[in-house]
């Protein structure tokens, strides 16, 4: 952002805030529900601070854009949404992305017409450069005690950069104090597959391959004569990262730093596809294709087709994250086909590598929700976000409504009734649409799994006893056969890896005017063309295609891209340790 534009945006924010604090008249919301912007009116049941102070609960509607899809969104007419509105007076007129969020954010930034609240994920820089975002620093200090309490001394990590220490988003994708108790990634195999084969070791890609091959020999088709599918990949748009390219570093000892591999000691950055060992992972996928074990439609199918295949029960194996494929699996559970569900296995290229899903990053903010300069009432907006960060707000998001979705026993322990647990297990999609539990998770700042609230109970329902309670009997049977209680038991734990001082590099914001944006897009275009080509080629052509791919990267400036990203990594380490 040029200095003049940034100065004007800052001045606008100061003027708006000064007017609000002085109580200079109520600002209407242009027909979207109205709202009192004055800071002088208070209510015993506050507008979202959770501490008994704040504006009135006069209804107000904010527009919102989220870069992630939310297929179960019910316009806040679910149980949790209604409770949030009752506590804050706020409803959201929300749009959630179903296509390419980078393109949509670019259009929003260029239009000059911004939603009141926005969650841009990795494209915040475009909005900052356009002058779209308010600096939230003073709003947090004056109106957001729950946000301040939650982040504590980590709030300095919310700063945008060393040159621009503004806070533009409240981190909502990063949990404070997170302890992971379960695994949702790795490689997935249907429970029926491992059971019929006597629960073999699923430790390497060869183990995974052999299980698929042996089961297909016995069961080439389903009960209706439709061919079973060995392994299906999801390569539809950005999901290419999740299902096709990210596993190359997970299986070869590299942590998740987006498209880069970063040396833990020197911070030297390498475009991770240039690691020689990753070539061997893609060679294995090429082999799977040649053996007829890879879904031939992997690189042409759309996301809904991928989910439909999973829901049919015909896909034996996946390489994905649960949040990406769970709608398909949930359809199977709703039909009672639990044996067609998936277990999670820490598969690597060979046994010399550790699967890196749980490599610790510490508190690593970057992606979250911000308030734009078009918001008619920034104070009400920050109070809304502050309510979501309050204990009450987090319990609504994680547990639901007291007496309806959870109760307290005689010892003060928060418990989920059996009938609710059964619904969550057997019809998770329907239950979420009705209850709203989890739909607001990436809208508000929150504590992670394992953190206790003021009553001594966990903030989240993801703790060992409750996780096990949500497993169906088929899952429990599979886990028991492998000597595990939860899926995470099978994976290398956090203490086997050093904490990365830069956090998660994939959420480092890149300045909108940086050449790095152009270079990254160029490398992505090359990689997304060459990787499928290499996987689908005859095996005798794989080395040639891979060598051509590497040379094309060099000609396109991959080394310059690595150098520029290395500067950002080092800048983050410096910023966080000032």
TrEMBL record:
CDD domains: PBP2_AlgQ_like_3
Organism: Thermobacillus composti (strain DSM 18247 / JCM 13945 / KWC4)
InterPro entries named in the record: Bact_solute-bd_prot1 (IPR050490), SBP (IPR006059)
Keyword Zinc-finger: no
Signal peptide positions on this chain: 1-22
Pfam families for the chain: SBP_bac_8
Name of protein: ABC-type sugar transport system, periplasmic component
Keyword Transport carried by entry: yes
Entry keywords, A to Z: Signal, Sugar transport, Transport
Residue segments, region Disordered: 32-53
């Amino acid at each position: 952002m040029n200095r003049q534009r940034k100065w004007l945006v800052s001045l606008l924010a100061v003027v708006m805030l000064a007017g609000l604090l002085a109580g200079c008249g109520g600002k209407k919301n242009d027909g979207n529900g109205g709202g009192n912007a004055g800071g002088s009116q208070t209510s015993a049941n506050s507008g979202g601070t959770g501490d008994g102070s704040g504006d009135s609960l006069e209804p107000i509607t904010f527009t919102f854009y989220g870069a992630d899809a939310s297929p179960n969104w019910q316009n806040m007419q679910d149980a949790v949404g209604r409770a949030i509105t009752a506590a804050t007076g706020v409803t959201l007129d929300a749009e959630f992305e179903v296509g390419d969020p980078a393109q949509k954010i670019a259009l929003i930034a260029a239009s000059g017409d911004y939603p009141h609240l926005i969650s841009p994920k990795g494209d915040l820089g475009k909005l900052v450069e356009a002058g779209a975002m308010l600096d939230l620093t003073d709003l947090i200090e004056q109106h957001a005690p729950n946000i301040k309490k939650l982040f504590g001394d980590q709030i300095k990590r919310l700063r945008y950069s060393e040159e621009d220490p503004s806070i533009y988003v409240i981190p909502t994708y990063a949990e404070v104090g997170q302890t992971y108790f379960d695994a949702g990634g790795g490689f997935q195999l249907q429970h029926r597959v491992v059971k019929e084969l006597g629960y073999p070791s699923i430790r390497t890609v060869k183990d995974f391959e052999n299980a698929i091959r042996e089961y297909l020999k016995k069961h080439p088709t389903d009960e209706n004569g439709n061919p079973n599918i060995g392994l299906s990949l999801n390569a539809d748009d950005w999901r290419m990262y999740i299902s096709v390219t990210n596993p190359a570093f997970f299986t070869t000892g590299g942590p998740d730093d987006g498209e880069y591999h970063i040396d833990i000691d020197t911070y030297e950055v390498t475009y991770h596809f240039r690691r020689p060992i990753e070539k061997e992972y893609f060679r294995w996928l090429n082999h799977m294709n040649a053996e007829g074990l890879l879904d031939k439609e992997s690189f042409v199918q759309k996301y809904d087709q991928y989910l439909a295949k999973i829901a049919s029960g015909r896909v034996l194996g996946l390489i994905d994250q649960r949040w990406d494929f769970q709608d398909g699996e949930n359809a199977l559970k709703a039909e009672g086909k639990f044996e067609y569900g998936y277990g999670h296995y820490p598969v690597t290229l060979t046994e010399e590598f550790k699967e890196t899903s749980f490599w610790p990053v510490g508190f690593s903010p970057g992606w979250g929700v911000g308030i734009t300069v078009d918001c008619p009432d920034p104070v009400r907006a920050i109070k809304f976000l502050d309510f979501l960060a309050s204990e009450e707000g987090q319990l609504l998001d994680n547990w639901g409504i007291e007496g309806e979705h959870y109760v307290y026993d005689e010892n003060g322990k928060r418990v989920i009734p059996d009938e609710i647990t059964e619904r969550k297990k057997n019809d998770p999609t329907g239950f979420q649409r009705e209850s709203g539990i989890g739909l607001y998770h990436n809208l508000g700042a929150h504590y992670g799994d394992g953190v206790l609230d003021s009553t001594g109970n966990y903030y989240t329902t993801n703790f060992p006893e409750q996780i096990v309670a949500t497993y169906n009997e088929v899952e429990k049977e599979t886990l028991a056969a492998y000597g595990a209680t939860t899926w995470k038991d099978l994976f290398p734990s956090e203490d086997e890896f050093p904490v990365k001082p830069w956090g998660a590099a994939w959420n480092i914001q890149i300045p909108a005017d940086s050449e790095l944006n152009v270079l990254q897009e160029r490398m992505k275009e090359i990689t997304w063309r060459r990787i499928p080509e290499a996987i689908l080629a005859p095996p005798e052509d794989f080395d040639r295609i891979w060598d051509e791919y590497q040379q094309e990267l060099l000609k396109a400036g991959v080394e310059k891209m690595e150098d520029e990203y290395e500067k950002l990594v080092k800048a983050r380490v410096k910023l966080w340790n000032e």
